[in-house]
Design a protein that fits this description.
Ribosomal Protein L30, Chain: A; Ribosomal_bL12_C/ClpS-like; 43% helix; 3 helices; ATP-dependent Clp protease adaptor protein ClpS; peptidase activity; 3 strands; ClpS_core; single chain; alpha+beta; globular; 3-stranded antiparallel beta sheet
Length: 91
Protein backbone atom coordinates (compact mmCIF):
# COMPACT_ATOMS: atom_id res chain seq x y z
CA UNK A 1 0.00 0.00 0.00
CA UNK A 2 1.37 3.35 -0.98
CA UNK A 3 0.85 6.45 0.95
CA UNK A 4 0.30 9.61 -0.91
CA UNK A 5 1.50 12.63 0.75
CA UNK A 6 -0.14 15.88 0.07
CA UNK A 7 1.70 18.98 0.89
CA UNK A 8 -0.28 22.08 1.16
CA UNK A 9 1.44 25.38 1.21
CA UNK A 10 -0.15 28.14 3.09
CA UNK A 11 0.43 31.41 1.43
CA UNK A 12 -0.15 34.57 3.33
CA UNK A 13 -1.49 37.27 1.16
CA UNK A 14 -0.92 40.72 2.44
CA UNK A 15 -3.66 43.04 1.44
CA UNK A 16 -2.76 46.65 1.37
CA UNK A 17 -5.67 48.47 2.87
CA UNK A 18 -6.01 51.94 1.47
CA UNK A 19 -8.45 54.48 2.71
CA UNK A 20 -10.50 55.86 -0.14
CA UNK A 21 -11.34 59.54 0.09
CA UNK A 22 -13.68 61.51 -2.11
CA UNK A 23 -13.72 64.94 -3.68
CA UNK A 24 -17.21 66.35 -3.29
CA UNK A 25 -18.22 69.22 -5.54
CA UNK A 26 -20.90 71.60 -4.25
CA UNK A 27 -23.44 73.69 -6.10
CA UNK A 28 -23.05 77.44 -6.38
CA UNK A 29 -24.82 80.26 -8.18
CA UNK A 30 -21.66 81.58 -9.83
CA UNK A 31 -20.15 78.98 -12.17
CA UNK A 32 -21.67 77.95 -15.49
CA UNK A 33 -22.30 74.37 -16.53
CA UNK A 34 -19.63 74.71 -19.21
CA UNK A 35 -17.02 75.89 -16.68
CA UNK A 36 -17.80 73.02 -14.31
CA UNK A 37 -17.76 70.46 -17.13
CA UNK A 38 -14.49 71.76 -18.58
CA UNK A 39 -12.89 71.78 -15.12
CA UNK A 40 -13.93 68.19 -14.36
CA UNK A 41 -12.57 67.00 -17.70
CA UNK A 42 -9.28 68.82 -17.19
CA UNK A 43 -8.68 68.19 -13.49
CA UNK A 44 -10.50 64.95 -12.66
CA UNK A 45 -9.90 63.19 -15.99
CA UNK A 46 -13.64 62.81 -16.62
CA UNK A 47 -15.09 62.00 -20.00
CA UNK A 48 -17.53 64.55 -21.40
CA UNK A 49 -20.45 62.34 -20.36
CA UNK A 50 -19.15 61.89 -16.80
CA UNK A 51 -18.57 65.61 -16.40
CA UNK A 52 -22.05 66.46 -17.72
CA UNK A 53 -23.70 63.97 -15.37
CA UNK A 54 -21.78 65.31 -12.37
CA UNK A 55 -22.68 68.90 -13.27
CA UNK A 56 -26.36 67.96 -13.46
CA UNK A 57 -26.21 66.11 -10.13
CA UNK A 58 -24.48 69.04 -8.47
CA UNK A 59 -27.11 71.42 -9.84
CA UNK A 60 -30.14 69.38 -8.76
CA UNK A 61 -28.85 67.57 -5.66
CA UNK A 62 -26.51 70.27 -4.33
CA UNK A 63 -23.40 68.10 -4.34
CA UNK A 64 -21.75 65.16 -6.07
CA UNK A 65 -18.69 62.98 -5.54
CA UNK A 66 -16.50 63.73 -8.55
CA UNK A 67 -13.36 61.71 -7.74
CA UNK A 68 -12.47 58.86 -5.40
CA UNK A 69 -8.99 57.75 -4.44
CA UNK A 70 -6.08 58.19 -2.09
CA UNK A 71 -5.72 61.52 -0.33
CA UNK A 72 -2.30 62.23 -1.86
CA UNK A 73 -3.84 62.01 -5.36
CA UNK A 74 -6.97 63.98 -4.50
CA UNK A 75 -5.40 66.92 -2.66
CA UNK A 76 -3.79 68.59 -5.71
CA UNK A 77 -6.95 67.99 -7.76
CA UNK A 78 -9.13 69.58 -5.10
CA UNK A 79 -6.79 72.58 -4.91
CA UNK A 80 -7.04 73.00 -8.68
CA UNK A 81 -10.86 72.89 -8.51
CA UNK A 82 -10.79 75.54 -5.78
CA UNK A 83 -8.40 77.66 -7.85
CA UNK A 84 -10.93 77.57 -10.70
CA UNK A 85 -13.55 79.04 -8.36
CA UNK A 86 -15.44 75.79 -7.70
CA UNK A 87 -16.59 74.76 -4.25
CA UNK A 88 -15.10 71.38 -3.34
CA UNK A 89 -13.72 69.47 -0.38
CA UNK A 90 -12.12 66.13 0.38
CA UNK A 91 -14.06 63.85 2.71
Amino acid sequence: MSTQRKIQEEVDVLEKETIQNEIVLFNDDVNTFDHVIDSLIEICDHTLEQAEQCAILVHYKGKCTVKTGEYKDLKPRCIQLLTKGLSAEII
